[in-house]
Specification:
This protein has one domain: Cytidine Deaminase, domain 2 (3-Layer(aba) Sandwich). Helices cover about 45% and strands about 15% of the residues. It is of the alpha/beta class.
Length: about 230
């Protein structure tokens, strides 16, 4: 049963208030990506004590970007745009916080970047295992891999995965997700797109969007694999 609007808003506000600054910044970047018609993923790099070094979002559909970031191409992922702004010979202990499990491209960029820890909110099983470069060679097997923390054990995990698909669900990706058991979320994405809800979401801020989607998040968590 759907929560009343006031209850959903209170629940969303409570979980948002409990986030640290890197998580809030990453989700704010993801929401800006959604509002600008890009894939809704955001990320930031921070020091181990939480100081933000750089934050960025997906810009695959943009026609410009801040200096040093990619735009208008398949390279313009949130994690890549964060890493592109980090000094080549800077500190090596940074934490990368991203709203979605990194894809193969971003996992490779992280592997070559100054990242000691990766935190991600939402799972994307399409890319499971793509972070494990130890299988490529003996040299990679000997090198320390970045620590991975994720997905989150709360509603923000489902929120992050859902919003990333609201603006990006090509046929091959959809087919792969259904084969992996993500059919209920795929069906919800189609329903929301057909009803114009994505456009309505784009008029909200990130906490308003989280409250609006809150009842659906619980439903997705309870839905049996399709």
């Amino acid at each position: 049963m759907d929560l009343p609007h006031a209850d959903a808003t209170a629940a969303a506000t409570r979980i948002w208030a409990g986030l640290d600054e890197p998580w809030r910044v990453a989700f704010a970047q993801a929401w800006e990506a959604l509002r600008t018609g890009n894939i809704a993923v955001g990320a930031c790099a921070s020091t181990p004590d939480g100081q933000i070094v750089h934050a960025a979002r997906n810009r695959v559909n943009d026609r410009d970007a801040p200096p040093g970031e990619a735009f208008g191409s398949a390279l313009a992922h949130a994690e890549v745009n964060v890493l592109a702004r980090l000094p080549f010979r800077g500190r090596r202990d940074l934490v990368l916080t991203t709203t979605l499990q990194p894809c193969l491209q971003c996992a490779a960029a992280i592997r070559l970047g100054p990242v000691a820890t990766v935190r991600f909110a939402g799972a994307d099983h399409y890319w499971d295992g793509c972070h494990d470069f130890a299988r490529l060679s003996a040299r990679e097997a000997r090198r320390a891999q970045p620590a991975r923390i994720g997905p989150r054990p709360d509603e923000l995990a489902t929120f992050a995965t859902l919003i990333s698909r609201l603006t990006h669900l090509p046929p091959a990706y959809e087919e792969g997700l259904r084969a992996l058991g993500d059919g209920p979320m795929v069906d919800l994405v189609h329903a929301m797109s057909g009803d114009g809800e994505v456009e309505r979401l784009a008029t909200m801020d990130v906490t308003g969007g989280l409250a609006y989607l809150w009842p659906r998040l619980a439903g997705l968590a309870e839905a049996p694999p399709a």
